[in-house]
Amino acid sequence: MRIDILTLFPGMFSGVFSESILGRAQESGLVKIWLHNIRDWAEGKHKVVDDTPYGGGPGMVMKPEPLAQAIRAVSAMAEPPDEVILLSPQGEVFSQKAAADLACKKRLVFVCGHYEGVDERVITRLITKELSIGDYVLTGGEIPAMVVVDAVIRLIPGVLGSSESALDESFQQGLLEYPQYTRPAVWEGLAVPEVLLSGHHAEIERWRREQSLLRTYLRRPDLLDQAELTTDDRKFLEQIKVSLAKGGESEWI
Ligand code: 4GY
Question: Can you tell me which atom of ligand 1 is nearest the CA of 114?
Answer without folding.
Answer: 15
